Amino acid sequence: MAYVAVSALSHPGLIRERNEDSLVAGPWTLCATVTENPQTLVFPLGTPLVVAVADGLGGQPGGEVASALVVRRLAAAGAGLATEEDVREAVHACNRQVYASARAGGDALATMGTTVAGAVLLPGSLLAFNVGDSRVFAAPRDGVLQLSVDDNPPPRPGQRTTSVVTQCLGGTPVYRAVAPHVTAVSLAVGDRYLICTDGLTDPLPNDVLDGVLRGYDDGRAAFELWKAAIAAGGPDNITLAVVRVADR
User: Which pLDDT belongs to residue 103?
Assistant: First the structure.
């Protein structure tokens, strides 16, 4: 019987005072907390399984509130996300909830927002989705392949990345709709994926991600990715999930 192993870790990094990232894997959520040891969960491959990260916008109050709202809503909706349209509607619903909660929270939360990136695993297919610059990668043995689409303006000359996002969930005083990116790919036993916030990808280029994922699986891969980001300065919150499809 095919199954999905999800190895997840979330950490504030070395610069930020608190962790504003959150993560969902099936019904399990990890919200604005710290884990230095990866947690590995195993799920049967059958009912739609959502695995996603949300990165609360830094520099604005309530980032951790927004990211937690999103992953909890995805956890509740995950088993019903069977099509690309289901995924788009779930992301739109998350955006509406962030804005509704911001209004209810008054001035303190008026501009809270978050990115989101994840995947829904189905028998035979995977639906990758994102809004913002958190990322989803396929990780075959011949090199990582980004499935998500970065919502960033071009970086300035001499810069590899930028922290500016062109769309996110919430983040503005007045409601703004989003256009979720959704990509469908085939899924088979042996496939691996990496889902992460930009606290991992900003300090680590793709060749480093690829080298770690070639060398390790599951919890060890998650730990080595986190360790590499810390060694590179840990400039932001680091949240990631290594996803592997296997057969008993």
Answer: 94
Count CA atoms within 13 Å of residue 145 on its CB side.
Answer: 10
In percent, the amount of the chain with pLDDT more than 70 equals 100
Q: Is 196 helix (H, G, I), strand (E, B) or coil?
A: strand
The string of DSSP codes covering 107-163 is: GGGTT-EEEEEEEEEETTEEEEEEESS-EEEE--TT--EE-S----PPPPTT-S---
Q: Indicate the helix (H) or strand (E) that contains 90.
A: helix 84-104
E-strand ranges in the chain read 2-11, 21-25, 28-31, 39-44, 49-56, 113-122, 125-131, 135-138, 145-146, 169-170, 181-186, 192-196, 238-247
Overall pTM > 0.70: yes
What's the mean per-residue pLDDT of the chain?
Answer: 95
CB 187 within 8 A of CB 244: no
